[in-house]
Write a structure and sequence with these properties.
- Helices cover 37% and strands 28% of the residues.
- By secondary structure, it is an alpha+beta fold.
- It has a single domain, classed as 2-C-methyl-D-erythritol 2,4-cyclodiphosphate synthase (60s Ribosomal Protein L30, Chain: A), CATH 3.30.1330.50.
- Strands 4-1-7-5-6 form a five-stranded mixed sheet.
- Helix 4 packs across helix 6.
- The protein binds zinc ion.
Length: 183
């Protein structure tokens, strides 16, 4: 076995790192819905039945986590937006978490991509209630995309100072995804 001198080794490492960096795709997305009375709040497929309000939207069940994940995956692959993937039909009964396996089939598997991490931040004034159920949310996301639990992180922030959120007038999810192609 030949040993490489330090310069050749450093050059090789730089070349491999550059090649890998070009294969990585990162995207950030955010989805916000104002609250309305009489709708159920659902986050990453987890229903909060005792919560007094839910998202005021005609799109599906208004799951901001699922919507932001779809937007981030579409953004990372430059394949349009949520409306291109799932045209809005005004059906409030649609479960948005069903978008995830569909994106896995039609995007991740079709383009032979590998998901690195999915990092979710939920912004809501009712932080304690949500915090208790982040592990359920993580499990739903991991199952939907068929990735392992340690690739998904969900956290909740009350975002002190952001008045709309603190007064419970709406809810937002922010998502960062990393993908790799051709590995
Ligand atoms: Zn939405």
């Amino acid at each position: 076995m030949t040993t490489l001198d330090e310069n050749t080794k450093a050059e090789l490492i730089r070349e491999i790192a550059t090649a890998l960096a070009k294969k990585q795709r990162l995207a950030f997305a955010s989805d916000f819905h104002a609250f309305a009375e009489g709708r159920t709040l659902i986050l990453a497929g987890v229903p909060f039945e005792n919560f007094p309000k839910g998202p005021n939207t005609k799109r599906s069940d208004g799951d901001v986590v699922a919507h932001a994940i779809v937007m981030a995956l579409a953004g990372a692959t430059n394949t349009g937006d949520i409306d291109d993937w799932f045209p809005e039909k005004g059906e409030t009964g649609v479960r948005s978490m069903e978008y995830l396996p569909e994106m896995r089939h039609r995007l991740i598997e079709a383009k032979q991509l590998v998901i690195g991490t999915i990092d979710v931040t939920i912004l809501c004034g009712e932080q304690p209630r949500m915090k208790k159920r982040t592990s359920e949310m993580q499990r739903n996301i991991a199952e939907g995309l068929r990735i392992s639990l340690d690739q998904v992180h969900v956290k909740v922030s009350s975002m002190d100072g952001q008045d709309e959120i603190a007064r419970l007038e709406g809810i937002e999810a922010r998502v960062l995804v990393s993908l790799w192609e051709g590995l």
